Amino acid sequence: MFKGILIEKDDAGYRAQLKDIDEAVFHEGDVTIRVNYSTINYKDALAITGKGPVVRRFPMIPGIDLVGTVEHSDSADYKVGDTVVHTGWGVGEVHPGGLAEKARLKSEWLVPLPEAFSPTQAMSIGTAGFTAMLCVMTLERQGVTPDKGEILVTGAAGGVGSVAVSLLTKLGYTVVGVCGDPSETDYIKSLGASEVLDRSEFSSPAKPIAKERWAGAIDVVGSHTLANVCSTMKYRGVVAACGLAGGMDFPSSVAPFILRGVTLAGVDSVMCPRPERLSAWKRLGRDLDASKLEMLSREIGLSEVIPVASDMLEGKLRGRVLVDVSR
Q1: 14: part of which helix (H) or strand (E)?
Q2: How far apart are CA 208 and CA 230, in angstroms?
Q3: pLDDT computed for residue 324 by the predictor
Q4: Beta 110-112 vs 83-87: how paired, if at all?
Q5: What is the pLDDT of residue 295?
Q6: Which part of the chain is CATH 3.40.50.720?
Q7: Burial of 255 (0-12, 13-18, 19+ CB in 10 A)
Q8: What is the longest distance spanned by two Cα atoms in the chain?
Q9: In the CATH hierarchy, which fold is given to the domain comprising 127-266?
Q10: Residue 57: what are its φ and ψ, rounded to 5°?
Q11: Cβ(290)–Cβ(117) under 8 Å?
């Protein structure tokens, strides 16, 4: 038995509880891990609260991220004592995840802990930071260089946004953040943003085409925000879209794409192929200012996970939330 957050759904309803869990809950996997830290991401918050159809198999341990030590391995790639990192692959949705003291996963889903980071730093990055790096790499592949102009980052006080602002700034880009809480302005600027805009500027229905400003953008919101971002892109600007905090709809027109040659590039971190994962983690080790990780992270214990998940959905949190599963 081990402690963890367990989501159940039956005749009594949908519920998430901290409880003792039997290893019988585990599915297929060739590596058993003693989890040190996990995180709470937006998807985890939806799963824990039941406010989104994230969990597709019950009972389920949420937690799409984890870092831990290998306890048992049937894989030639990992041995007992290795420290490994996991993000994505449907874990916490269809396969028991990291918000527990133990996990059993497939070896091909794991990456070795990068030498540049401690376990806590790796989870300060987690899926959010990994996704931010994939977005930056997407902009780079599309030819968006610092000399092309300003880069807009929506949800700039959140997990993806915080890391994206920090990464882009270190790489020499001029970054403008978008946030709904004016009290977070100083925090976002401390990460490197030159300016912070209120999200209300992007929440109304978008014009088909508006004044050009952004050479590139990273959007975690979707809906009207993404539509407004697209309509204000410069000629041949690129938008990396990776989130839906504002909704799954996209109430836009084809105008930005056929009149300005704007590119809307989707970024998925869940099923990202292993070679690109390794490349992204290597880039994070090189391009992320590790000294900022402590500033953009807070740490809680397993007993705090459920109420904090609700706070996340209400937009009350900044940066990353690490979970020490031992307390």
Answers
A1: strand 13-21
A2: 9
A3: 97
A4: antiparallel
A5: 84
A6: 127-266
A7: middle
A8: 60
A9: Rossmann fold (3.40.50)
A10: -150, 130
A11: yes
Place of tokens 């706070």: 311
- Residue 194 contacts by C-beta under 8 Å, 6 or more apart in sequence? 150, 174, 175, 176
- Residues facing residue 3 across a β-bridge: 20
pLDDT of residue 294: 86
pTM recorded for the entire structure:
0.92
Structure tokens at 96: 């028991």
Question: Architecture of 2-113+296-324 per CATH?
Answer: Alpha-Beta Complex (3.90)
Which two structure tokens, joined as six digits, stand for 49?
């609260």
Residue reference for tokens 């997990």: 159
- Reference 144, options 236, 258, 243; nearest CA is 236
Amino acid at 290: A
Write the CB contacts of 128 (distance below 8 Å, at least 6 apart in sequence).
39, 41, 158, 159, 160, 162, 163, 320
Tokens representing 192?
């490197």
Residue 75's identity, in one-letter code, is S
The amino acid present at 3, given as its one-letter code, is: K
Q: Tell me the two tokens of residue 312.
A: 């996340």
Residues 18, 3: contact at Cβ < 8 Å?
A: yes
Q: Where in the chain is the domain with CATH 3.90.180.10?
A: 2-113+296-324
Which pLDDT belongs to residue 109? 97
Looking only at the bridges linking them, the beta strands covering 110-112 and 151-153 are unpaired
CA pair distance 173, 64, nearest whole angstrom: 30
Q: What is the mean pLDDT of each run of 10 residues along the chain (327 residues)?
A: 97 96 95 98 95 95 98 98 97 97 97 95 95 98 98 95 96 97 95 97 97 98 98 98 95 98 98 95 94 88 96 88 95
